[in-house]
Amino acid sequence: MIRRAVLVVLGLIWLGPTYLLIVNASRPAESYDPARAWAPPGDFALLDNFARALEGADLGPSLASTALYSVVSPALGVLIGALAGYTIVVLRLRHGFWWFLLLFGGTVFPSQMLLVPLFVGYSDAGLYDSRLGMILIYTAINVPLAAFVLRNFYSGVAFSIFEAARMDGASTWRVFWRIYLPLATSALAAVFILEFTFIWNDLIFGLTLTQTAEVRPVMTALAGLMTDVYAGTPVPVGLAAGLVVSLPTVVLFLATQRLFARGLSLGSV
Amino acid sequence: MTRAPILGRFRHGYVAPAALLVAGLLYAPFVWTAYLSLTRYDGLAPPEWAGLANFAKLFDDPVLLSSAGNTLIWVVGTMALPVGLGLLVAVLSYDIRGGAWYRVPFMLPYALSGAGLAMVWSPVLSHGGVANLLLGVDTAFLQKAPHNTIAMLLVWTWQQLGVNTLLFVVGLQSIPKGPIEAARLDGASGWRLFRHVIWPLMRPLTAVVVGLALVASLKTFDIVWVLTQGGPGRNSETLAVTMYKETFVAGDYGYGSTVAVALTVVAGLASYLYLKRQVR
Lengths: 269, 280
What we know:
The complex is a heterodimer.
Chain A: H1 2-25, H2 46-56, H3 59-89, H4 96-104, H5 112-125, H6 131-155, H7 159-167, H8 172-183, H9 185-201, H10 204-209, H11 218-229, H12 235-267
Helix pairs in contact in A: 1-12, 2-12, 3-4, 3-6, 3-9, 6-9, 9-12, 11-12
Chain B: H1 3-7, H2 11-36, E1 39-40, E2 48-49, H3 53-59, H4 62-93, H5 99-107, H6 114-125, H7 130-135, H8 147-174, H9 177-185, H10 190-201, H11 203-218, H12 222-227, H13 239-249, H14 253-279
Antiparallel strand pairs in B: 1-2
Helix pairs in contact in B: 2-14, 3-14, 4-5, 4-8, 4-11, 5-8, 11-14, 13-14
């Protein structure tokens, strides 16, 4: 009984801000008043508010860029990581374990250690504030995890599959592309989702390596909206932007929850 | 003699993309930052060797002292609130009927992230905002140190509690029922059952959750950046924010790199000491 009571009280505290968020994001932009923040909104204006954020803060191009980064980079990263895992485990690359350590070691660097050289290097190479530059760094960050999970996954696949395909005359690339890649769909999907979420929510690389609205990822653009304009942006517009921009990761996660759980457990075998 | 053909000849070509990306965009910048931490560098003129001068500055920089202090608040606070309270919610709810429903309120905020989180809380915490009106006080919660760090920590708790709870619940549900039943038969219940039976059994999972939270809290950046940008002045900066500001706001790339190295050393040392304790 006490347990339930504690849970209910804590839960109500947690629901308070959630309620505030939803109610005020749906409120017509001009009718926000901190003193009446708890009152239900008269009209439902969430979509209007979001449309205003898209226009006013120029979130449209940022959203498009972020969508591009969070799909292309994990896809490339997963492919490249899977190929490395395949080469190390199935093709028995010499010193494979060291190659693996080299790749996986890439996860230990805090992003703060990368920022200055990336900024300077990107500026020199003309990659600063370019979509290509963003895709490159996001892809590189994905590779270690992909290589790790896929290496584990391929360790559990019978070598006879590979041998049989080779006997039939398939090239090593074809074996990878037609057999090993499709075989690992759930592991690939799990890594993809993790990386999609990471990139979608990334703030610091966007902050450091981009400048213009076309290239700048949406979280960075939103942070800009916060600091520069929130004084002038009606609160409901800001809230609606924060809410809608968070949706894709939630939807993706809910839609793929089962695949996700399966993929991770396979990867950790 | 027959092995080589079946395994193909192009193997290094297949690891090359992965190796090049990781070496070029992760390892090389890492090494370069380590070098820059020993130089005077403004990003324009070539870096000038400065030996340990930047590291000496590190130790009597009042800003660094305050951001180290704030980072410590973040680390300790993260252990106590999102992790500790998360454990409490998990333990209270994991074996009661409808437990999952009791956890829904804690999971909802997890959907928001980074800047979205700040969007929500900024109007609540601002001067004359909802929190002022609700509590009947007239404080700008994000102004004075250390209140602002603590306020942000509470926001962070609101967002992160759910995911920690979820991890702990998974752990609690996967521990074997046998020992718990046996202890119950022997008359153990409540706190004693938890302390002496359940807690030791869930330790491997706790170790992972705490370890991840430890490293993540040392690198706290996003929430501070979007809510206060480390201000007002510089009083809510964490080490990661100081690193960013020294580099990209003040233009002192050399010293910024030094702060990055210091942060890396601290995070590495903390994980090492923590892992060592866990393994023992």
